[in-house]
């Protein structure tokens, strides 16, 4: 539909196209892209949708629920972004007949459906692999989903805690809870998520504690804890054996890193910008796989003398560390050093080395 179009459908609009397999309502712009709600009106409601439907994309779906007479046994993808849905089906539970009929549903997105406050308590959809609820700002309870779920997107929801039962989601690969500003609690059963590869908690400003990692997590490679209220990380954090990227940027209450951080043998990228109380552990010089280290905007006055041991380090950012007085020798492989705004810097053991090897470096009182 063009962005000037308006379409009004009667309740039986789809009665004569029972074999329809793909139904897409979204607004196109002048450049072939898509923007805004699709202006489809259903003043008399909607009696049903085609039973053969496999793919349903309806941007701005205008009703509070799907038609009661809709038999979704062939539905594979359900996408209702920015819609007025309050619930998918009438009642607090999914009717058993509907649950059985949804045996082919693999993808469901209700992103930015702000009228949704909860999902049915028995939504045991065995084929569902991806559930996207990002932007459902009134959703306050962690959804009960099948243990076969692999991708769960819950950004910008009102969820306050993750239940202990999350350990049942043994196939979960991505859990995205970015900007869940009411989230206060994570259970230690998170460590049971053996397939988890990416965990995003960026912007969870009320999250003060990261749970003990009581078991080894062999697949979690990317952990984003930036802009949280964490004070420290547990010593059991080293059980995140596969961790490749750790983002702690703007954790303004973070006082220290685990003493045994050196045991994160695959950690290649550490971002700890703006963690002002942060004290660097000596063990940081034993991060054997570190490539990119961002320690900018912190208040420490010196760095561990053994930084030269970080043989894989290529990028080091200590810009605007205003109390930093000296820089130690750095590894021969360093490619870029940013020390702009380090106003107290007096001793630079590595400067000659950098200039001799023609590396890119930035010093002085300038900005990043």
From TrEMBL:
UniProt keyword terms in alphabetical order: Leucine-rich repeat, Repeat
Cited Pfam families: LRR_1, LRR_14, LRR_3
The keyword Repeat is annotated on this UniProt entry: yes
Residues in Disease resistance R13L4/SHOC-2-like LRR domain copies: 115-222
GO CC annotation, single: cytoplasm
Record bears the keyword Methyltransferase: no
Gene3D superfamilies documented for this protein: Ribonuclease Inhibitor
PANTHER family: LEUCINE RICH REPEAT-CONTAINING DOMAIN PROTEIN, PTHR48051
Protein name stated in the entry: LRR-RLK
């Amino acid at each position: 539909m063009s962005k000037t179009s308006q379409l009004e459908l009667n309740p039986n609009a789809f009665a004569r196209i029972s074999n329809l397999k793909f139904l897409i309502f979204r607004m196109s712009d002048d450049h072939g892209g898509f923007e805004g709600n699709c202006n489809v009106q259903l003043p008399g409601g909607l009696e049903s949708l085609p039973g053969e439907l496999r793919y349903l994309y309806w941007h701005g779906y205008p009703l509070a629920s799907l038609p009661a007479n809709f038999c979704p046994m062939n539905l594979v993808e359900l996408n209702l972004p920015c819609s007025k849905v309050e619930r998918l089906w009438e009642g607090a539970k999914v009717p058993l007949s509907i649950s059985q009929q949804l045996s082919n549903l693999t993808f469901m997105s209700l992103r930015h459906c702000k009228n949704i406050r909860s999902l049915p308590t028995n939504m045991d959809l065995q084929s569902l692999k991806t559930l996207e609820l990002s932007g459902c700002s009134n959703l306050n309870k962690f959804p009960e989903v099948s243990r076969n779920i692999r991708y769960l997107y819950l950004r910008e929801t009102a969820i306050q805690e993750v239940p202990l039962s999350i350990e049942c989601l043994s196939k979960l690969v991505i859990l995205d809870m970015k900007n869940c500003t009411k989230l206060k609690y994570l259970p230690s059963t998170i460590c049971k998520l053996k397939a988890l590869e990416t965990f995003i908690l960026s912007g969870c400003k009320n999250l003060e504690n990261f749970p003990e990692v009581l078991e080894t997590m062999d697949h979690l490679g990317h952990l984003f804890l930036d802009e949280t209220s964490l004070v420290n990380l547990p010593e059991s954090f080293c059980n995140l054996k596969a961790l490749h990227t750790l983002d702690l940027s703007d954790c303004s209450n973070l006082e220290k890193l685990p003493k045994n951080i050196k045991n994160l043998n695959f950690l290649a990228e550490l971002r700890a910008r703006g963690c002002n109380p942060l004290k660097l552990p000596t063990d940081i010089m034993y991060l054997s796989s570190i490539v990119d280290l961002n320690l900018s905007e912190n208040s420490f006055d010196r760095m561990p003398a053994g930084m030269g041991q970080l043989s894989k380090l290529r990028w080091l950012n200590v810009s605007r560390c205003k109390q930093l007085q000296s820089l130690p020798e750095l590894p021969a492989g360093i490619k870029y050093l940013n020390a702009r705004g380090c106003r107290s810097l007096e001793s630079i053991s590595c400067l000659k080395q950098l200039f001799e090897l023609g590396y890119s470096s930035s010093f002085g009182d300038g900005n990043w």
